[in-house]
Amino acid sequence: MDLDLAEATRAEFAHSTAYLNTANCGVLPRSAVAAVRELADAAGAGIPAGFGDFDRVNRARAAFARLVGVGVERVSVGSAVSTHAGLVSASLPPGAEVLCPEDDFASVINPFVVRGDLKVRFAPLETLAEAVGPDTALVSLSAVQSADGRMADLPAVRAATAAHGARMLVDATQAVGWLPFDASPYDYTVTGGYKWLLGMRGASYMTVSQEAQHTLTPLHAGWVVAESLWDDIYGPMGELARDARRFDESPAFLSYHAAEASLALLERIGIEAIHAHDTALAARYRAGLARLGHEPVPGEAAIVSVPGLADRQPALQAAGIATSARAGALRASFHLYTTEADVDRLLDVLS
Which of 43, 103, 180, 303 could form a disulfide linkage to 149, CB 3.0–4.6 angstroms apart? Predict the structure, then answer.
């Protein structure tokens, strides 16, 4: 049964601002803060508990797998979306065509651009499916646009890639945690853990379909990617992990100890309940903007951007209202700890 959202918010969050900036960085729950403090204290005391706990990392891995509807054997853990995307970039042959939406987040574009020997092509998000062609090897896109909350038509793009034999990389960083998201149809997904998943920088997740796992080489393979973790610390490993764990990075334990607690909270509340809460607040904000004569970027996401208001962000910050200025727009984002009073306070200052 879903935990009451208001009850969870009172118990888990202690911020004093009207926090409308999860698309930039989420607020760490008290339980995650406690997990980080416990590990840091143990490390400072020089006791074994301060080394970090792989079991916690694997519980975070399993929780993320449940959130996105795949088996845990498809999930690799790492430190950043760009690192995961870099593995996919390295897998492509010279001259391969990569299709991306115009103005998408840089971390799912740059790993392909910097190679220099790939053909990176761009198309409007709204017509991306129609832009997939017979020469397209990979489509790399965000499920929800960071700048303005526009949502991709993922089923249409997936159908187009399947029709042309192309693979698909979806960045779900601005989706997982508020939007019900199923990673199973896609060859690769990448998700940063420090926004809607309420974690810290240093935790990120990659899903790789069973069929696509043979396409990637674990170029940053360390001792943690061995099938037998503690038996292959020295010398060449006897066997790579047989599933997506072969693509792991050595975990940043502080981040993953926090992630275990944060993901457990999201699971207890339930993504459906969070989605309803977040989008209702976004709709309240959109309606208020209309009354003030402002026109946000159309959509129904938990991210709302208003072109031309980016210059209001510093004054809002001074008033204790956390938002972002992105691409010339004022961006507000609403999550489980946001209240109607926060939305109304933002509208009052804008008026």
Answer: 303
